[in-house]
């Protein structure tokens, strides 16, 4: 809860800052998600009911309400990636991590998601891990990238 | 070919305002400070600049109308919620030369008497948000934003970066404003238009990243010079995004009037692996799909319109013969089903039903009646949807059916010529 309190000090306590506050809280959560306590605390601070806050947050795809892995791996599934082999890439990642879309690895390191376009069409098929984007992936390059995260370098 | 928007890409530190100034930046704002606002807006009208976000509304007349509204509070908002699949041009402006956008917004603020601006950047561009925030901070330190800009008494303007949180619909202008207000991004009813009643119910100007970025150049070098790059109808240059099955994927700044063939084959290097082009999907997911026979059409709002095509955001997705039209349609419709905000029934339920019916084609259980149902649903969505999202779903749907009806009929007969669809329930009907 200390994280939430600290984030709250940076923003004026007005309802228009709700999304910005929650994005920051989620980023610092370590579990890529928001707990009920955090949502409830922010709701009270902003003078909103928690149901109203959930109503807003659940509209947006980036918020998670169940704990997720330390790193979110998003595989683009939009048209430019779709026609250049996104399905094969997804299969490769699923095999490499031994999880399916929506699942988290046992060590809580990765959660695998599919995402609409994140603007990396010039290096399709592409994946996004956190704020980093990787494209033109072969089996070798994919393993290299994932190993960097597994080894804690990133 | 002279570059306007991409001239400084890779040549300056993106968030260093002094490097931008040395490379010719802020000349437009300085000139605007010594011009009558109406004269400046007239230059923009002369430039034949159309909105680059997708709707292609003429910017000059839009600004003149807004200027005529004599109300105090005004907001300048930039739509940097670049969520249209196949579009990645704004990303380059934001990451490589964000000051041209900031200068464009500042010129607008001077003209309209606006004190506050917002750049709404999609949540997926987290790294880019940091660059833009840093650029704004540096501009404030050097007196290009904040109080008494460039020493002009009373000319105050601040810009805040607001992050999206993963919703395609927030690229719709009124949904974007709802999102800045901290609400779910569902579109508002129009009218009233944003120029009268936008953010916090105040007069608001909202433009795309690329549109704002054209403004400094237009003011500095004149609207007529800008217009001379394009065709009679469409002034200036356009950032086009080439992706999909094409050799040299990337962003290209081209003068209006170039043909699609020149863009795809001369600049893009054509289709890789000696494959043939099957179709091009232009302008984003909500744009139309058309076969190779349309490629000699000039990239110009008017020429495209004559062929019932819209330029949209400038996304050019090339799809080669190894892909299946039905499978591609499924991918596109899946996108709209997921991104429909749920506010109106035609879009929410219609996209869901369309996906269900397209699945029957993929499984090999569709009939001719299903093809008719798709056409009928398309017409419902077009007529009855609340906003542009639902209204434009029929564009890719119908253009694919119309140009490739034979492939849809093959699927009814249990065949997929590209061998992409499984047809695992072939003959069950």
Short account of what is shown:
With 154 residues, chain A is of the alpha+beta class. Chain A is built from seven helices and four strands.
Task: Explain what this protein looks like in three dimensions.
The complex is a heterodimer of chains A (154) and B (429). With 154 residues, chain A is α+β, with helices and mostly antiparallel strands. Chain A is 43% helix and 12% strand. Chain A contains 7 helices and 4 strands. A 4-stranded mixed β-sheet of chain A has the order 2-1-3-4, with helices on one face. The longest helix of chain A has 12 residues, at 86-97. Chain A starts with a helix and ends with a helix. Helices cover 43% and strands 12% of the residues of chain B. Chain B contains 18 helices and 9 strands. In chain B, the strands form 2 sheets. Chain B has a 5-stranded mixed β-sheet with strand order 6-5-9-7-8. A 4-stranded parallel β-sheet of chain B has the order 3-2-1-4, with helices on both faces. The longest helix of chain B has 19 residues, at 345-363. Chain B is globular and about 75 Å long. At the A-B interface, helix 2, helix 4 and helix 5 of A face strand 5, strand 9 and helix 13 of B.
């Amino acid at each position: 809860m200390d994280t939430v309190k600290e984030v709250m000090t940076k923003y004026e306590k007005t309802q228009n800052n709700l999304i910005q506050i929650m994005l920051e809280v989620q980023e610092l959560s370590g579990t890529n998600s928001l707990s009920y306590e955090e949502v409830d605390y922010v709701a009270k601070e902003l003078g909103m009911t928690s149901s109203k806050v959930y109503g807003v947050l659940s509209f947006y795809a980036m918020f998670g309400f169940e704990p997720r892995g330390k790193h979110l791996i998003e595989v683009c599934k939009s048209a430019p990636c779709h026609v250049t082999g996104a399905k094969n890439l997804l299969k490769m990642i699923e095999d490499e991590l031994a999880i399916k879309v929506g699942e988290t690895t046992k060590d809580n390191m990765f959660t695998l998601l599919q995402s609409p376009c994140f603007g990396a069409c010039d290096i399709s098929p592409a994946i996004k891990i956190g704020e980093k984007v990787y494209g033109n992936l072969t089996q070798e390059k994919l393993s290299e990238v994932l190993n960097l995260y597994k080894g804690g370098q990133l | 070919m002279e570059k306007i928007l991409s001239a400084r890409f890779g040549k300056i530190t993106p968030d260093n305002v002094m490097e931008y100034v040395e490379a010719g930046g802020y000349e437009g704002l300085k000139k605007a400070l010594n011009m009558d606002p109406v004269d400046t807006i007239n230059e923009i009208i002369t430039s034949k600049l159309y909105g680059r976000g997708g709707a292609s509304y003429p910017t000059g007349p839009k600004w003149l109308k807004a200027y005529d509204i004599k109300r105090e509070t005004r907001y300048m908002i930039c739509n940097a919620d670049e969520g249209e699949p196949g579009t990645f041009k704004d990303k380059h402006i934001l990451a490589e030369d964000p000051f041209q956008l900031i200068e464009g917004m500042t010129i607008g603020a001077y003209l309209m008497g606006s004190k506050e601006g917002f750049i709404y950047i999609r949540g997926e561009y987290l790294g880019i948000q940091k660059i833009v925030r840093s650029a704004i901070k540096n501009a404030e330190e050097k007196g290009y934003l904040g109080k008494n800009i460039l020493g002009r008494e009373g000319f105050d303007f601040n810009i805040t970066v607001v992050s999206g949180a993963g919703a395609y619909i927030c690229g719709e202008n009124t949904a974007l404003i709802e999102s800045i207000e901290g609400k779910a991004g569902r579109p508002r009813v129009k009218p009233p238009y944003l120029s009268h009643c936008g953010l916090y119910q105040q007069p608001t100007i909202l433009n795309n990243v690329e549109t704002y970025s054209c403004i400094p150049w237009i003011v500095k070098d004149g609207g007529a010079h800008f217009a001379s790059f394009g065709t009679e109808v469409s002034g200036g240059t356009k950032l086009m995004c080439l992706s999909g099955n094409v050799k040299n994927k990337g962003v290209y700044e081209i003068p209006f009037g170039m043909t699609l063939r020149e863009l795809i084959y001369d600049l893009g290097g054509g289709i890789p692996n000696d494959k043939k082009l099957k179709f091009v999907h232009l302008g984003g997911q909500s744009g139309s799909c058309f076969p190779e026979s349309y490629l000699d059409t000039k990239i110009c709002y008017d020429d495209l319109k004559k062929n019932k095509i819209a330029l949209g955001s400038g996304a050019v997705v090339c799809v080669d013969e190894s892909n299946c039209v039905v499978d591609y349609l499924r991918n596109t419709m899946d996108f709209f089903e997921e991104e429909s905000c749920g506010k109106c029934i035609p879009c929410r339920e219609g996209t869901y039903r369309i996906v269900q019916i397209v699945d029957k084609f993929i499984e090999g259980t569709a009939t001719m009646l299903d093809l008719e149902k798709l056409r009928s649903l398309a017409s419902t969505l077009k007529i009855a949807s609340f906003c542009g999202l639902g209204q434009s779903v029929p564009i890719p749907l119908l253009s694919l059916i119309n140009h490739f009806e034979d492939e849809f009929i093959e699927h009814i007969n249990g065949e997929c010529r590209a061998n992409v669809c499984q047809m695992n329930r072939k003959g069950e009907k």
